[in-house]
Amino acid sequence: MKRVILSLFITVLCTTVYCDIAPSRISARGIGARYNTEVRMVSEQVLVTLTLDSSFVHCYFRLHNEGKAESMEIGFPYMDTRPYSPEIYAPISIYQNGKEISEVNLASSNNDAEDLTPKTWYWWKTKFDGNEYMDIEVVYSLPYCQEKNGLYSSFEYLLSTGAGWKDRIDDAEVIVTFKNFDKNLILRSYPSNAILSDDKMVWKFRNIEPDETNDISINYEPVLGSYNESLKNMRNPASILNESTVLSWDIRDKNYVGNVIQIKKLTAINLLRKEDVTLTDFPDIDCKYGLLLYYNEDFIPNRFIRALNSFISGNDSLKAMNLKKLQKNYSLYINGDKIKSKNIPDRIIIIKPSDIIQAKLKKRFAGKPSIYLTINVPRQKK
């Protein structure tokens, strides 16, 4: 069994399998205030014409200044694309109360490369009188976004960028009209409250504080049946979360790996080669291309603690804790050898409850309590 370093695995996942886990899509977005403001977005309507190779977006925003007169900057995030490709600065036209804004600036922040917040904004200055309403239109087009390996294409509109305005949005509507586009090409779409007809898909929201659950996404295949054919030719390893939930590489499935796996909550990912996977461990899973075992941050220590408590009882039993706390507060001995503190997480991960022959907890007047394990595996290096 081999432990895969998370950062390395994420890179591998994004270059050889799917890219949903990393920031890899071209995403259409709404306008946002660059700083705190008393201006509220009353309504937002987004009209999209979607073809197989492009999207044409026309946004209507109605804003209301609920405070005193205010000068401000309004921003529109650029359309981010794959980290391996040049940035896309989509040509846009912006209108304020029917008049086109002639001076639109570009500003970049110094965000870290792994920061998912927008790094570059179109922005312009404007002024609101007290209690003023203002109508803003933004018009632009985008090329289609094809995920790595060309398995499917995507369109997204991120309503969550509107969270920077004051309070909630009364009404938001996104209407995607298909042009020379068969609705049967759609593999999945979300959120799930869309109304689908032959030529369009409509989302309506009322009184929302937009977040990522409101973001619009449509994934579609370029040719009917091409996605299923591509899945047949994939050589992805089988995948399991916490040794119980079997994951899928098909984006249409409930347990699709890109939906279920949350990188920030993972403790480790273990990669088993085909020859390392025994039928007794996973008899119902096709592991001809290997097996990936994902572990959430609380699964490994809690499994380990439950196993210890089957040997340790009463006041000495351990309570649930995360891996860092276990590593910090306890010393660990395995088959008589003391394990270095920095190596405890790696050692705990590979210990199955059935491997433990005996476990004892020794408390000390000074220093950490010590866990002594006798396990039924060959002696390993410290």
Write a brief structural summary.
With 382 residues, the protein is mainly β.
Structure notes:
This protein folds into 3 domains: 2-17 and 234-296, no CATH class; 28-226, Immunoglobulin-like (Sandwich), CATH 2.60.40; 299-375, no CATH class. Residues 1-25, 80-88 and 111-118 have low confidence and may be disordered. It has 382 residues and is mainly beta. It is flat, with a radius of gyration of 26 Å. Strand 23 and strand 24 (337-339) form a beta hairpin. Helix content is 12%, strand content 39%. It has an 8-stranded mixed beta sheet, with no helix packed on it. A 5-stranded mixed beta sheet has the order 1-21-22-19-20. It has 6 helices and 26 strands.
Topology:
Elements (H helix, E strand, L loop, with lengths): L1 E3 L1 H11 L11 E2 L2 E2 L5 E12 L3 E12 L4 E8 L14 E5 L2 E2 L4 E4 L11 E9 L4 E11 L1 E2 L6 E6 L10 E10 L7 E5 L4 E2 L3 E9 L7 E5 L5 H8 L4 E4 L3 E3 L9 H4 L5 E7 L18 E6 L2 H11 L13 H7 L1 E4 L2 E3 L4 H6 L6 E7 L7 E6 L7
Parallel strand pairs: 2-13, 4-14, 19-22, 23-26
Antiparallel strand pairs: 1-21, 3-6, 4-5, 5-11, 6-10, 7-8, 7-11, 9-10, 12-13, 13-18, 14-17, 15-18, 16-17, 19-20, 21-22, 23-24, 25-26
